[in-house]
Amino acid sequence: MHLRFASVVGVSLLATAACAPQFDLVIKNGDLVDGTGAPARRADVAVRGDRIVAVGAASGRARRTIDATGHVVAPGFIDVQGQSGVTLLVDANGESHIRQGITTEIIGEGSTPALWTRDTADRVALDRYHLQYDWTGFDGYLHTLQNRGTSINLGSFAPVAAIREQVLGMQNRTPTPEELQREQEILDRAMQQGAFGFATALIYPPASYTHTEELVALARVASKYGGVYISHVRGESFRVKDAIGEAIDIGRQAGLPVVIYHLKIGANANWGHMDEIRAEIEEARRPGRAV
User: Fold this and answer.
1) Hey, where are the domains in the chain?
2) Which of 26, 30, 40, 83 is deepest in the core (most CB within 10 A)?
3) C-alpha torsion angle, residues 16, 18, 19, 23 (rounded to 10)
4) Which helix (H) or strand (E) holds 125?
5) Which CATH number applies to 77-285?
6) Pairing of strands 197-201, 41-48
């Protein structure tokens, strides 16, 4: 009797395991755009936990199935130039992102709460949203955001404006060797604590007060940690070629990839010259540099 009961239980458990859903979610029949540059194709996407575990024809039961017929299925978009460092602390839902398919935002073009200090924190924003400035350091901000929770992923660059403001305030001058070293130390800590790289918005003060030599010295710090140099260049109309050339040169001297925030040409007189800009970038890429 005991052996028979054990056999029945064993068979029941095997049957239950065989019937258990293999996936938590399957998105079926959608037109998949996978981000590789390949043409859209009809495919299913199967998810288990927080991981995509199958792409193609998903066979097996799922706890939930979404029929995406007539819809595009794609990875979440990455907004590489966001400004939501403060507002996500207020409203972590981030619906303006999620409803556009954005699942990751990168901040830090000209400012980031991750580099605030007691003296440089944005008091206007803190008062407007009734926020407490209760973190310290780059990682302190990231942990604060993580602990409060947010619907999107967020990363931050370390912008030269925030670094310079800690050392020189809004002074329009070249830093002394000692001041430059302090700037490098701030960036070094930020890189160790999770910054994606070094950012500049060179049409806005105090970043506009910098010279190329200062930027190269700072970019070299980011380069040590595998960081990226990303820039809103000094000019986007009559000086655009020289401005892009400066960004490329900073990346070359410091040995790190270069990203240009806004690749455009302003002023009617300059329209039609984008091919020259493209050629400038392609020439910079020729030796194998990432631009």
Assistant:
1) 2-73, 77-285
2) 26
3) 120
4) helix 123-128
5) 3.20.20.140
6) unpaired
